[in-house]
Amino acid sequence: MAGPNSTAAAMPGGEKDVMANALKEAFYAGLIALGMFCLIIGLRTDQNIRNELILVPRWGLLATVVIIVMVGRFAFSAFVWPAIERRRLEKASTKNVVEAEPSLLRRNFVPIAIVAMFLFPVIAVYSVGLQGSLKWVDNFGIQVLIYVMLAWGLNIVIGLAGLLDLGYVAFYAVGAYTYALLGTQLGWSFWLLLPAAGAMAAMWGVLLGFPVLRLRGDYLAIVTLAFGEIIRLVLINWREVTNGSAGISGIPKITFFGLFDFDISSPNYIGKVFDLPMSGVYYKIFLYYLILLMALFTAYVTIRLRRMPIGRAWEALREDEIACRSLGINTTNTKLTAFAIGAMFGGFAGSFFAARQGFINPESFVFLQSAIILAIVVLGGMGSLVGIAVAALVMIGGMELLREMTFLKQIFGQDFTPELYRMLLFGLAMVVVMVWKPRGFVGSREPTAFLKERKAVSGSFTKEGHG
Amino acid sequence: MATAKKDPILTVEHLSMKFGGLVAVGDLSFEAQRGEITALIGPNGAGKTTVFNCITGFYKPSEGMIRMRSKSGAEHLLERLPDFQIPAKAHVARTFQNIRLFSGMTVYENLLVAQHNVLQKASGFTVMGLLGLGGYKHASDEARKLAVHWLEKADLMDRADDPAGDLSYGAQRRLEIARAMCTKPELLCLDEPAAGLNPKESLALNTLLNYIKSTGTSILLIEHDMSVVMQISDHVVVLEYGRKISDGDPAHVKSDPKVIAAYLGVDDEEVTDVLVEVGDESVIEQLDGTPDRAHGPSTSSSLMAGSVSSTIEHPDEGLVSVSKGASKADRIKDKPAAEKPAAKRAPAVTVAAKPKATAKPAKTKAAPSALAAVPAKPDDLKLIKGIGPVNERKLNDHGITTFAQIAAWTRAEIVAVEKYLEFDGRIDREDWKGQAKKLASGKSSATKKGGRG
Q: Whole-model pTM?
């Protein structure tokens, strides 16, 4: 609808103007709604008993919709927008007076968050019982952490080096298939294959990197997108090796370094070793802690790398590639290392994913996955680990939480399935967040080195990179 | 030539650069001596930046050879090295005409990125550094020291932890030079370092460049501002349309008729600028003379006084005599025009006359106050960005010699001065008044060093 055109609304004493304006806007909004919905809602095509197409008018529904739009528009222009304006004015006038001390939670956000993540399964088990916690630890905890790790890996490529990679899921797939194939064929342990999967993905990262080094920006994005699709199509069509769309099943479970495992029939089953009741939850909790540690390792490596010359070179590359070359930085190698290390973490996450699922097929590695990971990175604020973790929690966790919203059925009727609206809400949430915080949750950048004091660099100075 | 002993650090031989059919640089040969400042000058589009890009590897020249001789005796042919190896191996660093900083990184980080190669090697290509082995810690301490050294020299110490994009323009220029110096170059290539700087910033830049020269680093410089070139360079190479037209020390280049001709072909304003800056004595002699103290406006006040009285009838008898001086100033303006189509010049003169009527009421009011402020000691008006030697002379002819006078200009006076100097709106745009105020308050420090750079 028409944008909030309310300079008048901001003026104090213009109450009457505000109301008149709101009425006018409501009228226009209603008119537009009528025009838009007239054919969509007002008329419905149906079949009659003789299979003929007939028009069923629904004027009542149309009127309801239009009235809702008008009332909504009126409420927004008359009350909501002036309130926002007032608050903005107040904020502007008091801005320089008080610089609020950040709260305890804010100052120690990272340690608190890490402790909370470690306590999460414990809390889940205590609050909803052993079997009840399965859903929370697996569907919620592990799912979110996989995406956190993937997004942190992609953050190296996009957030630090500024290379827009739309095919990141390809490395995830390479890692997953490396573990799945070698694990089922050779029976190697996860702990051996984890580095192998990482190395394999890194190698593919370099292979992808070489041809696309000259490309920048949009062109790079298109080529990486194509690369992701090529990998998926190879997985589908190379049936002799990958078993095509049917995928690979029976992927061995991860053992606890061979000390005990999670296979009920095995003599070293954790229940037997520790004398616990049989349950599938142990494995999930173990996986939760494993992916948590893997994700934290990713974060740790990223933090360390940022303070190394190579990390600084990545960021410099994002800021200005030509200046980098003028300072003697080999931009080819710098880009390749960014691709390789980002891909490596994708490979780690992939092998974990394969072990957790026990079954993989190419359907898990579609472009949508790449898009979601990229969305998390952008939403979190490029380069910021904390922001990205929060974004992953909000997006993936939020999507999972929507499954739980059964109370919505009471409102919208029994036919309503909230899962079906997940993607819609997901998109809506992204739009809202990007309007509210255009540079993501954490827009500022932490400097990697400082002389006297560490000052965050405002996001308005950092660049996104050109590929 | 400039030095008796010849020790060229950079030898450019028969360099040509062609973009399709366009010959940007044609058969250029010159040498840059070690420890000297070599300036590359020429009108717009002469190919200076192209030469720079060839030297620093951003372009591969179509023909020719660029030989870099390091202190260690090692020789590199720059046209054969990939661009990123030129700073790393041949020790040539450069800055850019449009500043290229890592604006989202702090000033200190910028200087650390410049030491990438040293640090990368010390960190065992990251692996050893990640494990905390090897000499990485020592190397990073060294890097920190070098960065601090250049931060101090560039006068950026108190901005070290601020984002580079947050610095003022002049500070960004200095940071870019400091960053280039952190690669420990033997030859530093500066592409128009003084462009867009105000007088204070120019001074700071000059200090920095002189320090760099004193460390034994050779400098290759592109510059538009002739006063800078003539002041600091030891050797000047003049390009026009991609070809060398003159080569030698500043004094030699100054008097080279080819150089003057090249600049005469540019535009009105620059013609007179160059005539003065290049210091072609004979021409200037004709144009000028010392102001006639008896009748001239030198002790008088308001600038438009001359022009106003020369164009319209003036009730104030005392100021009419000023017209003589004003016409003298006009002569400076008119003289070079003789070498050009007269028609081109004529409208300018009439335009100059026009606004005087409007300026008149303000002037009568302003005159006494300005008169009262007749200075004991003239200031170097060139310190105000936008006032070149010619305009300074014109202003001086009208008795405007101090910053205080300029700072006290009224609106109408500014309009008149702009018309007189044929600067449409430039006084406001460049904020002469503000600059003059600032300079007037802090002039003791600024005037000592003089000149701009």
A: 0.69
